[in-house]
Structure formats: structure tokens, C-alpha cells
Amino acid sequence: MHEIAAIEDPAAAEVSLDPIRASLLAALSTPGSASSLAPQLGLTRQKANYHLRALEEHGLVELVAERKKGNVVERVFQATAASYVISPAALAAVAPDPARAPNQLSARWLLALGARLVRELGTLIAGADAARKPLATYGIDTEINFATAADRAAFAEELGTQVATLVGKYHRENAAGGRRHRLAVALHPTPKTTIEKAN
């Protein structure tokens, strides 16, 4: 089971958004069967089986064991990931495109960048998994408490200058055998609910 997976298929996204199926996915962080899950979710075994088949059909759960109980074969499933994110690829016709209206000071443009990050990483992870190869990535996640809006603006300007310097130092447009990498830097206020949970 993966830690996280991106759902790119629209039909799989629709299946995952059903409240009962989402509850089954959460319960299947550890293996379970229709008969073991049904009482937890207030379902009949037949209803649980119906939803499990839909999740299996879209690759959100996988069969991990089969146990014979009398004349019945009990199928034991586990979720393919501990958590899921729905990729903008699932809504391709209306997926955001950050190239459409670039604006470093726009929260909506930042959201479009985040959506592209989810879409591209979902595709790359799926390809790396299929090829059974590692994927070279790097991420930074931190928080800064700015005393003033002026400090935030000065930080953003200095960060932009430093990033431009590093890009200029390492970018080789026509390097033989080179591989392009995308760098996205985001700065936004931390939602108050996130701060409250941390405290």
C-alpha cells in the first residue's frame, strides 16, 4: 500500500467521492472483507460487496487474500493507498492552466500552480511505479511568522532574486542528456484552522 496516490481517472474519482465508498477506503487501511466491514459501516454484507467491487474495478482497493468459510470464499481487500488526492487530470476539460494568466501575486494563480503540481506528480509517480524506478524529487515545507507585511514583501523579493540566481547558475538549455525539472515556490498565509490544530 502506498502512502498517497493521485486519482486521474474521472470514473475512479466519482467512485471515491461516494461517502460509503470513501468510508470503506478509510477502513481498508488495514485488510478487511465485506463481512468484517459491513457491521462497522451499518451495511449488509451484500451492499458492502457491491461497493467493494466498484472500488476494485477502479483500482482503489486490491485483493490481498481469499479465505474459504464453509461453501463461501471470503475475499479480503486493502486500499491501494493510505490517502488519495484527486488530480486535475480527472477534470481535464476544466483543469487550471497556470500559463493562462501568470501573476505571482494572485492566490488563484498559486492554486493553479498547485493543481499542476498534483497533476504532473500523479503522472510521474504512475510512470515510475510502472517502470519500477525511483523518482527524483525534492520538497521543502516550513512556516514563517512575518512581523509586518513589509517584511513579507521583502522576503518574497529576496527569495525571488536568490531563486533566479540559482536557476541562472544551474540551468543549461541545451545540455546533452539533460533532464528538465520544474521548480515551484509558494508563499501563502497559513489557514487559521491549521494553526489551531498545531496548538
Structural class, judged by helices and strands? alpha+beta
Helicity level:
40-55%
What's the average pLDDT? 92
For the report, how would you describe the main beta sheet?
A: 3 strands, antiparallel
| Beta-strand residue percentage | 15-25%
Number of helices: 7
Q: Termini, distance in Å?
A: 31 Å
Oligomer: single chain
Radius of gyration from the CA trace? Answer: 22 Å
Cross-sheet strand order for the largest sheet: 2-4-3
As for the number of domains, it is 2
Describe this structure in words.
The protein is of the alpha+beta class. The chain folds into 2 domains: 2-84, Winged helix-like DNA-binding domain superfamily/Winged helix DNA-binding domain (Arc Repressor Mutant, subunit A, Orthogonal Bundle), CATH 1.10.10.10; 95-198, no CATH class. 46% of the residues lie in helices and 16% in strands. The chain contains 7 helices and 5 strands, in the order E-H-H-E-H-H-E-E-E-H-H-H. It has a 3-stranded antiparallel sheet. A two-stranded parallel sheet has the order 1-5. Helix 3 (34-41) packs across helix 4 (45-57). The longest helix has 25 residues, at 107-131. The relative contact order is 0.12. The mean pLDDT is 92.
